[in-house]
Amino acid sequence: MSGDTPARPGTSRDTSRDPWRVLVNVAQIPETGLHREIVADETVRKAMAEIAELREVISARAAFDLMPKRDGRFHVTGRVQARIGQTCVVTLDPIENDIDEPIDLIFAPPEQIPQMADLVDDAEDSDEETPDPPEPIVNGFIDIGRLATDALFLGIDPYPRKPDAVFEQTVEVPDPEDHPFAALKALQDRKPKGPKGDN
């Protein structure tokens, strides 16, 4: 993968690096919720592969359920499934891997974010499980394509290897002449002997 750390789903980042954009207008989400399924086309898959430095993105699809909550918030759940082409780090052979990542996020109007973030901070000080901070609804839209892209990137194995691939370690037999004291012994052997004392 690239040196850039993938953003957590929903976090802001450079929009030029968001090739898969599918906007949902929150004003058009009915009270009973909205189900959306999206599939990345070839152009989007090529762009995602380039950003993530993958050999290829063979397929990518996602399904989302967006459910209205109180105070203009929305609960977004879903799953991203993809098949990607990578290179085995051991054999350098081309391999394919499957990605299956869940998504479970709360989106809120931007003005609510500071207040809800404070509630998360308070929860961190307690023994209860800390909830994720909400994501902002940007200009009345939720970009489920970006959520799918982020989840896909997070599911990539940075060290892919074939199931039967193992690192071969070369075992060297230690040379007895390579002992730390071998050089000292050699010097002593070459050292001229002094005259022996007379008896």
Index terms:
7 strands
Architecture overview:
InterPro entries: YceD. Residues 187-199 have a biased composition (Basic and acidic residues). This is DUF177 domain-containing protein. It comes from Bradyrhizobium jicamae. Residues 172-199 are annotated as: Disordered. The chain is of the alpha+beta class and 199 residues long. It has one domain (15-154). 22% of the residues lie in helices and 28% in strands. The chain is built from 4 helices and 7 strands, in the order ββαβββαββαα. The strands form 2 sheets. The chain has a 5-stranded mixed beta sheet with strand order 2-3-4-5-6, with helices on one face. Strands 1-7 form a two-stranded antiparallel sheet. The longest helix has 12 residues, at 113-124. Residues 1-15 have low confidence and may be disordered.
Biggest beta sheet attributes: 5 strands, mixed
Describe the global form.
Answer: elongated
Number of domains: 1
Tally of helical runs: 4
**Could you give the order of strands across the largest sheet?**
2-3-4-5-6
- One letter per element, helices H and strands E, the order comes to EEHEEEHEEHH
Beta-strand percent range: 25-35%
Low-pLDDT regions: 1-15
* Protein structure class: alpha+beta
Helix content: 10-25%
Head-to-tail CA distance between termini: 81 Å
Query: What is the CA-based Rg, rounded?
Result: 29 Å
Mean pLDDT: 81
Write down how many β-strands occur, each being a DSSP E stretch of 2 or more residues. Answer: 7
Pfam families: YceD
InterPro entries: YceD
Region (Disordered): 172-199
Biased composition (Basic and acidic residues): 187-199
